Automatic annotation (TrEMBL):
Bias (Polar residues) ranges: 288-297, 305-319
UniProt keyword Metal-binding, yes or no: no
Protein name, as recorded: PASTA domain-containing protein
Tree of life domain: Bacteria
InterPro entries linked: PASTA_dom
Keywords recorded for this protein, A-Z: Membrane, Transmembrane, Transmembrane helix
Domain PASTA: residue ranges: 327-394
Residues that span the membrane, as ranges: 259-278
């Protein structure tokens, strides 16, 4: 892909070849920024309009665990998705060169799991967790590149996340044998930086996922527990079987045990002081005071395990939660008749995201011929507007 995409995006180097296209590094020469170009062939029976509608939901989703969709260009039977560029490397390329400790791996994988749970809240689901669709940033976090296409069932959700963990541990892309027997493969895999209890705990978790006994949140919390306890979940203790839940609820689970332990300690101190100062009598001189602490719930995770938000599951709201302002109303501007650059500037000035498509038209080349939604339509800042640009007569 050496040719320039429209008049704005210039590819520089190819990152990886995909079954239906490729990913390139590139530059947005208008805004002078680095971007990723995800070029994919249109499927049979698919046109640019249907493709835009396919990822319209994902285009409005913004999360640091995903590469934001910035723009799209459609031409010559291809769609090119313009994505946010992050410092780092494709995880497939980093897999055999990064030597991480067991704790590092568990932190990275559970952090990715929290990002997936956040995406579930906005109905962004079904994307692949293949090694060619994950980006390992310089901050040590994994992020998803393509989250608008459905991946294979074995690469989604809890099973997909479990495979990512296995690939980290084994430092190989291919995992031998059926997924249901992955735990047996782990038993033979050396883990020099893990304790024997941590290894057995991970094997048990993987077995539960493979047998359909552990949901995505259950798997994530199980990973956290390996770090917080440095050991194995008791055989008689069932991991919490939790349906996919918003991550804010998970934060409540995490902070509850620590608060209870603090309260219990204060109660014990108060009882001891009362006993020590209580007036003595002959009837009480031989009496023994016995205080039995009540059993408290075992913590699901240690909030201090991960230093990278939002993987840090804590009851304290993040800056983005406390400082986020409600979206303001926006009116779709009239872009028809404008040049491409003017139309882009008008859309950005209104606080909108935009996509544009090229089409053969009798109007002057580079002129906007139509738009969707229509001018004057009321919406919210962050909504998408799509416009069509004339390529001139053939």
């Amino acid at each position: 892909m050496n040719e320039q995409v429209s008049s704005r995006y210039v590819p520089s180097s190819q990152i990886v070849t995909l079954h239906n296209g490729a990913i390139y590094r590139g530059k947005d020469i208008v805004l002078n920024r680095q971007v990723l170009l995800y070029k994919t062939r249109l499927q049979e029976g698919q046109n640019s309009d249907t493709f835009v509608r396919t990822y319209s939901l994902q285009a409005g989703f913004q999360h640091e665990g995903f590469h934001h969709i910035l723009d799209t260009v459609s031409e010559d039977g291809y769609d090119v998705i313009i994505l946010q560029s992050k410092p780092g490397i494709l995880w497939k390329d980093a897999l055999q060169t990064k030597h991480l400790t067991f704790d590092n791996v568990i932190n990275i994988v559970s952090d990715l799991g929290v990002s997936i749970l956040d995406a579930l809240e906005t109905q962004v689901t079904g994307f692949s967790l293949e090694a060619t669709n994950l980006w390992l940033g310089e901050n040590g976090r994994l992020s998803v590149i393509n989250y608008w296409d459905n991946g294979e069932s074995q690469a989604q959700g809890a099973i997909g996340l479990c495979r990512v963990c296995m690939q980290f541990i084994t430092q190989t892309i291919e995992i031998p044998g059926p997924f249901e027997t992955l735990h047996a493969h782990l038993e033979r895999q050396p883990m020099p930086t893990a304790t024997a209890e941590q290894k057995q705990g991970l094997i048990k978790l993987v077995k539960q996922v493979g047998q359909g006994q552990a949901s995505l949140p259950t798997f994530i919390f199980g990973l956290r527990k390996l770090l917080s306890t440095n050991g194995l979940v008791d055989e008689g203790e069932a991991l919490p079987s939790i349906a996919p839940i918003p991550i804010r609820e998970a934060r409540k689970f995490n902070s509850f045990p620590r608060a209870n332990i603090t309260v219990l300690a204060l109660v014990l101190i108060a009882v001891f002081i009362t006993w020590a100062l209580w007036p003595s009598s002959s009837s009480k001189s031989n009496r023994h005071v016995s205080v039995t602490p009540s059993q408290t719930a075992k913590p699901l995770a240690d909030p201090s395990v991960s230093k990278q938000p939002p993987a840090q599951i804590t009851a304290t709201p993040t800056d983005s939660e406390t400082k986020a302002e409600p979206k303001k109303e926006a009116v779709i501007p009239n872009l028809v008749g404008l040049s491409q650059v003017d139309a882009e500037n008008h859309a950005l000035a209104a606080g909108l995201h935009y996509n544009f498509l090229l089409e053969t038209n009798s109007q002057a080349k580079g002129t906007v011929t139509k738009q969707e939604p229509a001018a004057g339509t009321k919406g919210m800042q962050g909504d998408n507007v799509t416009f069509w640009i004339s390529k001139g007569n053939p």
